[in-house]
Amino acid sequence: MTARPPTRETVTVTNPVLPGFHPDPSILRVGTDYYLATSTFQWYPGVAIYHSRDLVHWRLAARPLDRLTQLDMRGNADSGGIWAPCLSHDGEQFHLIYTDVKSWGINEVFKDSHNYLTTAPDIDGPWSDPVYMNSSGFDPSLFHDEDGKKWFLNMVWDHRPGRNPFAGIVLQEYSPAEQRLVGPREIIFTGTDLKVTEGPHVYRKDGWYYLLTAEGGTSWEHAVTLARSRRLHGPYEVHPQNPLITALDAPHLPIQKSGHASLTDTPDGQWIMAHLCGRPLTTHGECPLGRETALQALKWPEGDWPTLAQGGHHPAEHPPLPALPPHPWPDVPARDDFSGPQLRPEWMTLRAPPEVLGVSLAEGGGLRLRGAESLMSRHRVSLVGRRLQSLHARLRTSLDFAPEDFQQMAGLSAYYDSRNWVYLRVSHDESAGRSLNITSCENGLYREHLPQDVSTGDGPLHLEVQYDGPTFRFRHSTDGETWQAIGEPFSAGLLSDEHCGGLSFTGTFLALTCQDLSGRGQTATFHWAEYTEH
């Protein structure tokens, strides 16, 4: 279709525009198409790229890191893996910079963060095998200057005692011909008093180089800082009204944790900010949907500093954005019969591709999971999950599973990471035969919530997890019509960054999973899954 020229009219959108675990947005315009890449951490394939033509409607367009030659996260720490990708375009091809964080923990002094570049002629690929860049820190980006040179930036991690671990933003030239970084490394910005300086992006406008960074940490103090210089190498002066956006001084706002941003423009020169945010259940409470992506419009007079279109520095829940020609996408069907040639893109696995984890599509339809390691493993978990994107949502499924002993399990999980999950599992009990129980892991503490298993008999079994605002609970059925609650409701906040260790970075997933701790590889077949919001 041919897009109409943009106008100066506005349209009101509701934030977040990408709800549920879509952090660290990197936004980009190519012609009249907008692309937005987000972090995926330990979830596979790596990086989620969304596509829009009107900034209102978004579709999942690409999952570029989908093979082991690009990304192998087996053994990676929870909340390690893909941090803060940067998507750019140099007029000929797409460039995707990403970090694979191998070790990560609040009390771990080292980060082992490896930075790579992959390229593609089109957003749907094919994406190249990675080019290794460096391992000096995380949150890398690539800036294409007007003279054709390419510059690589990242924050530098300083592990030495008594030093600021966020040691500043480093700049180094990248040579496409040599496929490596060349020339001197230079710290061009050490941040402001907000500290925790990371997430650099450079933009050139009106003869200025603008350096956008995230500061304050990724929780309630999160903020966006802007600095500028006439020279790429600095020195940089900070926005006189810094921070550009934060919710630190407004804990009552529904949109919190605002930070880690990137910018793009419209064809007629209007500017948009994409930024990370969170929606707590209570003031500075838990955010079970994880860190999400919001948009804000900017006012950016020529030669001057930008400000939020609504004024001030607080994120708007309903901001005005440029009114581009509407372009909705077809709805994604709620029900998945697993009948295609591959998993639909909303489904993800842990740390490795499906075929490595015993996950396959059955001939004629259905999802087959070969039992592997426990949900506490960081290596080989047979699990397929999708993001929870609303606190009023439900996932239902139907499965066949014939466990022979208690070490074989399959079912439906609300999953955060290897130390935090709740699991309606089917297993075998010596007295009850095939039976149900609810198990959980809360910050590493394992529990079984029913005093004894509930017998299910043989045949297909239907399972459900339903979120109803601040709580969720499980149900089961033998015919898919009459549903019976099992166990008590759980707090939705149980599976959140705030509850799961304090510096965790993902969000709640609803997952189909199978374990066989005996090593015999018992298989569960899930005939369909249906995700709905209400």
TrEMBL record:
<dbReference type="Pfam" id="PF04616">
    <property type="entry name" value="Glyco_hydro_43"/>
</dbReference>
<dbReference type="InterPro" id="IPR023296">
    <property type="entry name" value="Glyco_hydro_beta-prop_sf"/>
</dbReference>
<keyword id="KW-0378">Hydrolase</keyword>
<dbReference type="InterPro" id="IPR013320">
    <property type="entry name" value="ConA-like_dom_sf"/>
</dbReference>
<comment type="similarity">
    <text>Belongs to the glycosyl hydrolase 43 family.</text>
</comment>
<dbReference type="InterPro" id="IPR041542">
    <property type="entry name" value="GH43_C2"/>
</dbReference>
<protein>
    <submittedName>
        <fullName>Xylan 1,4-beta-xylosidase</fullName>
    </submittedName>
</protein>
<dbReference type="InterPro" id="IPR006710">
    <property type="entry name" value="Glyco_hydro_43"/>
</dbReference>
<dbReference type="Pfam" id="PF17851">
    <property type="entry name" value="GH43_C2"/>
</dbReference>
<feature type="domain" description="Beta-xylosidase C-terminal Concanavalin A-like">
    <location>
        <begin position="335"/>
        <end position="532"/>
    </location>
</feature>
<keyword id="KW-0326">Glycosidase</keyword>
<dbReference type="InterPro" id="IPR051795">
    <property type="entry name" value="Glycosyl_Hydrlase_43"/>
</dbReference>
